[in-house]
Amino acid sequence: MRKGGAAQRGEAGGGEEAAAALAAVEEEEEEEQESSSSDSGKLYEAYNELHGLAQEFETPFEVPAVLVVGHQTDGKSALVEALMGFQFNHVGGGTKTRRPITLHMKYNPGYRVPVCRLVSDADPAVASRMSLPEIQAYIEAENMRLESDPCQFSEKEIIIRIEYKYCPNLTIIDTPGLIIPAPGRRNRTLQGQARAVEALVRAKMQHKELIILCLEDCSDWSNATTRRIVMQIDPELSRTVIVSTKLDTKILQFARASDVEVFLKPPACTLDGCLLGGSPFFTSVPSGRVGSGSEAIYRSNEEFKKAICLREMEDIVALEGKLGRSLSKEERSRIGVSSLRLFLEELLQKRYMDNVPLIIPLLEKELRSTTRKIRETNQEFRNLDEAKLKEKGRAFHDSFLTKLSLLLKGTVVAPPDKFGETLLDERTMGGPFTGTDSLQLPHKMMPNAGMRLYGGAQYHRAMAEFRLVVGGVKCPPITREEIVNACGVEDIHDGTNYSRTACVIAVAKARDTFEPFLHQLGFRLLYILKRLLPISVYLLQKDGEYLSGHEVFLRRVETAFNNFAESTERSCREKCMEDLVSTTRYVTWSLHNKNRAGLCQFLDSFASSEQYSASTISSGVQQEQYLALNDNKSDRSKPDSKPNHSNPCSDSIPCNPTAETRLVDLLDSTLWNRRLAPSSERIVYALVYQIFHGIKEHFLVSTELKFNCFFLMPVVDKLPALLWEDLESAFGDDLDQIFDITQLRHSLGQRKRELEIELKRLQRLKEKFREINEQLSSYLVRP
Fold it and tell me: Among 278, 248, 251, which Cα is nearest to 263's?
């Protein structure tokens, strides 16, 4: 390869001596390149084809390449053009690259002008030969298209293959320039673009096989503008080459020789890590474009290349003038584009050679995989007859039901991070349990709320949340107006029946409170059940039991399953609704009030707070109570009183009335009184509370039981028969429409042709790498 070129250029002066030295350098480089091209040409050609194969067929081949990373106006595109030896893209301020540009460069002494081929986006196997103006126009058109696109940038690479007598054997990926936007709301658009570019560049740097070319446009190494982002991916800079661009402008900024020394050899405290090459490179690219117009400075790419070499020599002379001494050989090896190109070319060639023995086993693995896929495709061709298609359909039916049952019973085969849902996710997609107040239960109060569940576990958690939410529902508040309106007028008397009043209020409150929960539960459980379908498909694909290519048949199974789930949920919800209607239509005291003890317990606490004293009970209620008691006593004191009148000394009521007995008497005394005293109000509330909570307990138990029996169990005992019936009905129809046999034959044929093309390319590549490996081995064993 080319060695000592930079040193010879540094020792040359200006004028005729510089021109003569330049001509000698060019002649020497051409001779060395021609001598080495026959040895390395096959290697680069094989790797370029391998890179194309990896892009086209998404095969796992890691091909070494140079990834150029820098901010806008750091001189990225100009440096890439200088490395190539010719100009092809826009250079200047602003965003000039909105898609990464991959340049497969190959040295070819036979081409005195660049020969470029643009790889098609639609078909990577097609590479159209284009002129430099046509490629430049294409890149400009893509930039304009993306500029009006919402995304602004695209990760899809523009791939260009180049052969030229001045090209190095390199693969370079030029990325969009990083942006440092100004803060503030006015710059939100630019801030969004900056985030998009940084995400794109970071994703490219994640590939471990890439060599990162980190460009810094600064004269003080303490400012790590691009390194800050690069070191997030490559903290030790072990696969990073740092380049300081625009050296010619920086030399003028240094006033002392010590500043130049620090710049050329930065201390470890400012630039540490395991840099590729040991220290930074320094480059300058002359301004001016190649062309025939008035704005062009160079008439040909040869003139542009000569200007680059002259710029390198001028930089070396300027540095030596600032330092007051000659640059060492090591220092000169870091100055100029040609030194950087030589270093990258040798580094990439070493990576290529080191990877050759590793590529052959990968190619053999891909060969075996492609051969197996071709055999499977041929087998699918043979299976396209009526009997075998029906057999496959029935087998899929059985496998699908098996996976469905497995998910309900519990399994860990499906990854929770992909298919599981936390309670927060489940509420977002399946709807929350909310009452009339629209408040939700904090998800932290639910067991397993943060766990990602699916299948039977998710069903059980949803039902547990339903029990917890509905079980914690309190009776809605009752107003005095509601009590008075509920009293109404009886059809036979105008008295007040507070038991009826309590029933009217309780059933209305219960119906309004619990009916929304019923619909919410049905929607949530239906969502959980429908989620089982994609998870079952994943399990089928994992076990090799999925019917790939039979989309019409699979859609029919999906439709049948979803229709079954929806109809089953609707039927179950209607049964629960009938039960809620019956419970809120007619009050059965044994069911709604449970027993007398519940009411007595509430009344006992109420009595203890009242104490029947003038300080705690209104005078009107106190007078009504004692008048009623005195009337009873006067009646009992009469000798002709009837024995069946109320007797405080009867068997059922003790002679010394307790607080509970007095309150029951108070209830009797107020049944015919429309004056809504505080005691009457509390008694009504006590009855409503008992009836409401009786309905709630019955609603909870019956709803959970019915959903388990009429929603969950039909999946186990009714779904298999329904799917089987639908399957057999489908087989009775036109089988070609069910399995789409015509389309399937076409897609299988297309797949087979693509696999055969891939197989031939893999075989050809394997043979190339085998020959290269034998050549490298023979070089190593030579004395």
Answer: 251
